[in-house]
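$ ./design --mode recover --in tokens.txt
reading tokens...
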């Protein structure tokens, strides 16, 4: 099963994504180094940061994908390729978010760099429309970034954990990540524990990273027809 994560331009979902991203701008302060996520909701945050920069707010940013880097550079946001300190803030979207702000990411393909950015941040905040809220993670497939080398063996070992993996793009034209790897979309059995799956996937040689982000986000800003709500820590505090 593949869940649709796209919304038509001008749809209510796009409005809600923009509202969530705009709320996250309240966390940006002059002098910060921030992490910029990937995807449609993160794009609205990037647009907002660009406005702040034009208004004189001094920030520098690290991009979580090549596409995000291109968007940020075009918008005039100063970018860093590396740094010797933690990020003050990282903001990104998600494909699924549970009540504890754990999430699934990577259906857009940038999960490895997104997780590096999230782990490097003092504060990691999710932004999303309320269609991304789930009572329990892994309602849809989990993206797993793998090495192309002996990839079928890697898939076989992943499937012993209780899932079925499909190579994104298919064997004739697999999707290649920014890091030169491939992605398996793995549908796990209903009720599997995401927290235990985290460690078991990392124990498999050939798995580069997976899209479970457990214990990383401190807040999730979620917008929908009922307005904006915040899971976890308030966003009014920098």
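writing sequence...
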């Amino acid at each position: 099963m593949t869940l649709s994560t796209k919304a038509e331009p001008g749809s209510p979902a796009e409005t809600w994504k923009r509202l969530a991203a705009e709320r996250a701008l309240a966390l940006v302060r002059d002098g910060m180094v921030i992490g910029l996520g990937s995807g449609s909701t993160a794009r609205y945050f990037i647009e907002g940061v660009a406005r702040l920069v034009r208004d004189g707010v001094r920030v520098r940013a690290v991009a979580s994908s090549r596409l995000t880097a291109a968007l940020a550079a075009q918008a005039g946001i100063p970018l860093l390729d590396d740094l010797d300190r933690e990020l003050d803030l990282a903001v990104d979207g998600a494909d699924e978010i549970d009540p504890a702000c754990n999430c699934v990411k990577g259906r857009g393909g940038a999960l490895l760099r997104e997780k590096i950015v999230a782990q490097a941040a003092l504060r990691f905040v999710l932004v999303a429309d309320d269609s991304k809220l789930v009572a329990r993670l892994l309602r849809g497939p989990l993206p797993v970034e793998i090495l192309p080398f002996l990839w079928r063996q890697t898939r076989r070992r992943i499937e012993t954990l209780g899932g079925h993996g499909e190579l994104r793009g298919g064997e004739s034209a697999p999707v290649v990540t920014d890091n030169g790897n491939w992605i398996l979309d793995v549908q796990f059995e209903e009720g599997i524990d995401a927290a235990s799956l985290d460690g078991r996937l990392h124990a498999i040689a050939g798995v580069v990273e997976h899209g479970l982000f457990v214990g990383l986000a401190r807040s999730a800003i979620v917008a929908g027809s009922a307005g904006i709500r915040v899971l976890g820590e308030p966003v009014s505090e920098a």
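exit 0
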